[in-house]
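WARN retry 2 of 3 for item q-0093 after timeout on previous attempt; input resubmitted unchanged.
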Amino acid sequence: MCGQSAIVVIGLGNEYRHDDGVGLYVARSIRAMAPDKVAVVEGAADSTQLALAIADRDIAYIVDAATSGTQPAGYTHCYSALRGAIPEDVLSGKTSHNVSVNEALFLVDLIGTRPLGVFVYGIEGADFSQGIGLCDEVKKAGDSVIDIIVNLIRRKSPRSRSQA
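OK item q-0093 returned
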């Protein structure tokens, strides 16, 4: 891994479109409380940049706003990338960025650098209009995801690739 952190937390979104900024909110909050061994990335311009952020890590946590249209604001979807593709319709609808988690995973698979664990949290948003700030339900869900990820980081020491 050449000096890069074994664990990465990536927050996707646009903080200037209300609930679309929940991934960035989670990433910034984790950065403030995570140990030095954890890398935190805010945003990714495209799937290639996301692939580069997760390549060669042991564990990657990705957080983004969700827009399934089937769940209320604040509902949190959680997917393990080891179980197949992430439902694109959940993470791509009304958001203002064009990043595909599945495309990023395809790219890291091509070069053989997929993390041992990839966990994606999609928090259903309500307001994607222009403006700053999360609705109460989305902020509360973001706080819960922060607690989950921080506890997982504290509980688990990532396995090295040589042990996998």
